[in-house]
Write a structure and sequence with these properties.
Shape: elongated
Structural class: alpha+beta
Strand content: 35-45%
Largest sheet: 8 strands, mixed
Number of strands: 11
Radius of gyration: 19 Å
Bound molecules: zinc ion
CATH architecture of the largest domain: Alpha-Beta Complex
CATH topology of the largest domain: Nucleoside Triphosphate Pyrophosphohydrolase
Distance between the termini: 25 Å
Helix content: 10-25%
Number of domains: 2
Number of helices: 2
């Protein structure tokens, strides 16, 4: 961040009074610009004994498989965001069960929330964000071609929990690759 989004003036980095971390502060209007983690929200869509994955059509990790997820937008809830991302990336409608993985990705300042969800019908298709969308049985999961650690974790949790028939919230903290 170099310029103020309020007055376009130059910014300095300093610890404000009553604070304990350095912030971007506008030299002109005095606005303090706080940088905080972004939220990524998405789904782990299940249909019968299969899981829906999308092959990424965009960087980063183009060509790798992922679950439908993306940055939350302003004026939506985390579940609304998860449903929207599933529509955008997989052209699929799902019914959300519950929050399943909550991951603090500390080194990239992100929080990722994945909801366990049921695919309403076996209807889905590729999109501008996905080269291919398909259902995978456990023995078909492309473990070496998954886009992100969080996706790998969620799938491992899911297949582990499915054996026990219970899917508790999994909280994970990642601090590096
Ligand atoms: Zn300013």
């Amino acid at each position: 961040m170099k310029y103020c989004s309020n007055c376009a003036g130059p910014l300095s980095v300093a610890v404000p009074d009553d604070d304990n971390l350095p912030r971007h502060i506008c030299d002109g209007c005095g606005t303090i610009h706080y940088l905080n983690p972004k939220i990524v929200t998405g789904c782990l869509p299940v249909y019968e004994d299969k899981v829906l994955l999308c092959k990424r059509a965009i960087e980063p990790r183009l060509g790798y498989w992922t679950l439908p997820a993306g940055y939350m937008e302003n004026a939506e809830s985390t579940t609304e965001g998860a449903l929207r991302e599933t529509r955008e990336e997989a052209n699929a409608e799902v019914t959300i069960s519950h929050l399943y993985t909550l991951t603090s990705i500390v080194h990239v300042n992100q929080v990722q929330m994945l909801y366990l969800a049921e695919l309403d019908k076996p209807e889905f298709s590729a999109s501008s964000e996905s080269l291919e969308v398909r259902l995978f049985r456990e023995d078909e999961i492309p473990w070496d071609e998954l886009a992100f650690t969080t996706i790998r974790n969620a799938l491992q949790f899911y297949f582990e929990d499915r054996q026990k028939g219970t899917f508790p919230l999994r909280e994970v903290i990642l601090r590096g690759n």
